[in-house]
Each structure stands twice: as structure tokens, then as C-alpha cells.
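--- STAGE predict ---
source: upstream dedup step, 1 unique chain passed
mode: sequence only
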Amino acid sequence: MTYITRRSFSVLAFALASARALSADDAVAAQIRAGGCVVLWRHAQTTPGVGDPPGFRLGVCSSQRNLSMEGRTQASAAGEWFKARALKPTAVRSSAWCRCRDTADLAFGTHVHWAPLDSTFGRSADAGGRRQVLLDALTRIPAGAFEVWVTHQVNIGAFTGESVAMGEAVIVGPEGRVLGRSDFG
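--- STAGE serialize ---
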């Protein structure tokens, strides 16, 4: 008769949890690799707060809520996640906000500003035609290719109906359908 000790049970449980996490990562990577999708990524962890301080200016990072040290590490680690899986986006688009630009640059070394990704926080009237603009751009991404779009929770929620934590992304396919999600951890 075989007995399982508490220690060996703990090791077994850890191994099973790790295998599940690995297979979830593999599934996300496979979905991205298949292409025809976008990684819609909420900027990495910021300093505490909601929105930006009163009077902030887009061209002045010191006037905005920015990435924390944890967020900078998180963005760099996400870049390593993509690199380890040989996943290279055909484009990295970003909101003009410094926390989004910095997330993109730390992960991929580059970004292009794309106004439809700019925050609509406190300005819901600005969100009007954005969904169609995003859908149109998404439909132009061919199979085998993907883009990364770094933006804000308010935009991700409006486009997908999903809520994501800072540093988390949803993989979005045709018709804006969510195919998966990851925190690249």
C-alpha cells in the first residue's frame, strides 16, 4: 500500500498547479501565434490613484500618474514573456499617456501613438466611434500576425465588456471577441 505524506502531497499539488499555469501560458501563446488578433493590454502597475491629478498634461509625464517600480518590472517581464515564446508583434500601438507609452517601450522597445487608444476616463462622449475604428483595424490583421495595443481599463471595458487589472491583457479576435487573457507572469 502506498501512503502519501503531507509533504509529498504539497509537492504534487504544486506540480499540478504549475502544469496548469504552463498549459494556460501555452494556450495563450498559441492563440497569439495563430494571429488575426490583438493583445489589448492595460498599462502596467502605477503609483496609487485613479485617473490623473487635476491639471495633468499629456506632454508632461511628471504631471500624470505614472508606472511604479513594480509596474516597470512588470512591463519588462512581459517583454521577456513574449521574447521567450518568439512572439513578435507586427505593431505596438499605445495611448499617449506616459504610463502606456512606458509600458510599451519597456516591453518591446518601441511604440506608435494611436489616438483611438487614448483614455476616455471622465469623457465618455469621446468613446463614441472608437469601437468601430478598433474593429476595422483588427480586421486588417492577417492570420499569423498580431499587434499589441496598450491602453486603459475604461477603453478595454468599452471595447470588450471585460475588466482587467493593471498589467493584464485580453487577446481579442474577430468581431472584438475575447479569445483569452494573460498577465504574462
